[in-house]
């Protein structure tokens, strides 16, 4: 006996399904709105897949996971050197990126962002000093700064006064305080973190292949 034909519902007509609109209907949809919705649906991967997190945050680490004799490839020896001092860690772009990702996980990324901004500021031409100094001051030092760094009142006031006639050294005092804070507080935790240890283990295992 032949079974009765079963009518399958169309996916684009089922309420609550992902395909809630036909391609023709999507043509008139605001793409930025769709992208915002898609972004919200993406799960946070930090703490679940550290390697995947690193690769998504720092794309050039992907090539560093492969064996190569190129000087641009990240090696286990280089990553091991990061444990010698914060200075060694911050001496390379990759070290800055990985440490920055760790600080972001601790909600203190303003420290390395300010430190890097100060390093860049020291290379500024004289005619651009005032403009650049104002941007750094408003972003990190001002009492209402969105990414306010943790410095004492005296240093904050001293830096504010220097904004009247900025020099290449006007942020040195604040930068030194932030560096010491990272060195004594965040850096030791970074060396014990999964974000560092997993990267080192992966590179060491890869070097044995």
Describe this structure in words.
Mean pLDDT is about 80; it is low at about 10-50 and about 60-70. The radius of gyration is 25 Å and the shape is elongated. The protein is built from 12 helices and no strands. Helices cover about 60% and strands about 0% of the residues. The chain has about 210 residues and is mostly helical. α7 (about 95-105) runs antiparallel to α8 and α8 packs across α11.
Features:
209 residues, elongated, mainly alpha, 58% helix, 12 helices, 0% strand
Indicate the topology.
Elements: H1 23-26, H2 31-41, H3 50-57, H4 61-64, H5 76-81, H6 86-90, H7 93-105, H8 110-121, H9 129-141, H10 153-162, H11 172-192, H12 194-207
Helix pairs in contact: 7-8, 8-9, 8-11
Number of helices: 12
Structural class, by secondary structure, is mainly alpha
Number of strands: 0
Unreliable stretches, pLDDT < 50, 5 or more residues?
11-50, 59-71
Distance between the termini: 62 Å
Strand content: under 5%
Morphology: elongated
The SSE order reads HHHHHHHHHHHH
Helix content: 55-70%
Mean pLDDT: 78
**For the CA atoms, what is the radius of gyration?**
25 Å
Specify the biggest β-sheet. Answer: none
Summarize this, please?
This protein has 209 residues and is mainly α.
């Amino acid at each position: 006996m032949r079974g009765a034909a079963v009518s399958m519902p169309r996916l684009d007509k089922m309420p609550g399904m992902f395909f809630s609109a036909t391609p023709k209907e999507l043509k008139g949809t605001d793409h930025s709105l769709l992208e915002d919705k898609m972004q919200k649906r993406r799960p946070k991967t930090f703490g679940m897949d550290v390697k995947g997190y690193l690769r998504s945050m720092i794309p050039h680490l992907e090539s560093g996971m492969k064996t190569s004799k190129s000087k641009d490839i990240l090696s286990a020896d280089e990553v091991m050197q990061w444990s010698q001092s914060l200075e060694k860690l911050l001496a390379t772009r990759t070290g800055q990126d990985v440490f920055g990702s760790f600080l972001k996980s601790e909600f203190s990324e303003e420290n390395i962002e300010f430190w890097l901004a100060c390093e860049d500021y020291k290379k500024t031409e004289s005619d651009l000093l005032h403009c650049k100094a104002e941007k750094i001051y408003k972003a990190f030092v001002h009492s209402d700064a969105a990414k306010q760094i943790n410095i004492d009142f005296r240093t904050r006031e001293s830096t504010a006064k220097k904004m009247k006639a900025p020099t290449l050294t006007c942020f040195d005092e604040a930068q030194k305080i932030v560096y010491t804070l990272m060195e004594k507080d965040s850096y030791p935790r970074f060396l014990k973190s999964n974000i560092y240890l997993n990267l080192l283990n992966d590179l060491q295992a890869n070097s044995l292949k």
